[in-house]
Amino acid sequence: MQSNSALEYDYSISKLFVYATIAFGIVGLLLGVVIAFQMAFPELNYLAGEYGTFSRLRPLHTNGIIYGFTLSGVWAGWYYLGQRVLKITYNEHPFLKVIGHVHFWAYIVLMALAVVSLFAGLTQSKEYSELVWPLDLLVVVVWVLWGISLFGSMGVRREQTIYISLWYFIATFVAISALYIFNNLAVPTYLVSGYGSFFNSVSLYSGTNDAMVQWWFGHNAVAFVFTSAIIGLIYYFLPKESGQPIFSYKLTLFSFWGLMFVYIWAGSHHLLYSTVPDWMQSLGSIFSVILILPSWGTAVNMLLTMKGQWHQLKESPMIKFLVLASTFYMLSTLEGPIQSIKSVNALAHFTDWIVGHVHDGTLGWVGFTVIAAVYHMVPRMFKREIYSKQLMDAQFWIQTTAIILYFSSMWIAGITQGMMWRATDEFGNLAYSFIDTVTVLMPYYTIRAIGGLLYLVGFFMFTYNIIMTMVAAKELEKEPTYATPMAA
What we know:
Layout: H1 12-40, H2 54-86, H3 94-119, H4 133-155, H5 164-183, E1 186-188, H6 189-193, E2 201-203, H7 207-242, H8 249-263, H9 278-290, H10 292-304, H11 312-315, H12 317-340, H13 342-348, H14 352-382, H15 389-422, H16 434-471
Antiparallel strand pairs: 1-2
Helix pairs in contact: 1-2, 1-3, 1-16, 2-3, 2-4, 2-7, 2-14, 3-4, 4-5, 5-7, 7-12, 7-14, 8-10, 9-12, 10-12, 12-14, 12-15, 14-15, 14-16, 15-16
């Protein structure tokens, strides 16, 4: 039997997804910065006509970051680490290699069509699920192709133990498969009646039922793309980069199964104080608070993996990214359950505090984990040193500053909003009009936009560093084992 170290891994598919990660990261973040400045300076909405307004760009931003940047990073990680932890290589299994390439190109076609359709204003108006029904079918095809790669690779593995990262990938695949299909069940109106646009459809559900199914999916798009898939990445790359074993296997088991059983029922906390039955609202709140346990179990397990090795924070910018990613995961998974408590939600709902919560998780936890994963993979794919350690370090501090500016401004803005909306005078009348709150919030929107711009600057630094690593850095005779050797 061939040893793991003797295997010649095929990185062709993973490289393609790395390129996509960088491209979608730039586009998604750039759109986010544009719409942030549109919020701070509303006149910017009118400079590019209808196609440049907040309402057209916002779905492109969210879809670009969730299904572009994040999924590309996850799939780059899968096609890289899957071979390693299963002790296979795609050179030995041409079918799996073909499936991987078809998966990538079908995905790129899907994303191109998504950009065109969303720019054109074609949408089914569901949060994180805006694509029209023909593209929903293509989404299923892309997802099934990943499933074939995932389970097909496991079927031919040499390593009998399924590493924990793959548990999380399996959970991502299975959960999103069910959730996406049920949420997107619809009747294409043109095919039924012959009237209207070919792309129009009507949800199979109506009213409150539609809202419940939507947020069953919507929140779990976060749970199983932004959370379980990213946990799958960090459980591989943090131990590999630090050279340390995972702190506790038992804690890994507890956190995995706790997350799977609890997270999937938390979505109704998006519908507090709505027409959804009160018992379902309460269920969402309760499960959200319980969610602290498995979430923190995972984060603590990651941080304690560095036990006795904290000096690596000074030595390796990559460890900084991974440790701070885990820290932001702890912060975000405490903040979310707090916001789901009914008394807190009465203040926080529909405010910018929710926006702050989403982005400290996305920019800190998801963004930093994917960035660190790419920094780990590229030297091994191209057998070159990272181009510049100093640039990595500068990027880390610029992006950390950006995240702090972003979430702190949105926390303050959100709590200010909530308090002003609730304030009454001595006669019980509302003390402030809606425009009063908007006026007060404008400085915070400017700070948010500056924070987003700084994060984008950091991402451009990352992109430059990765490209120079691919084409100009010092070549290595063999892949580095643990911490990546870096040039000055």
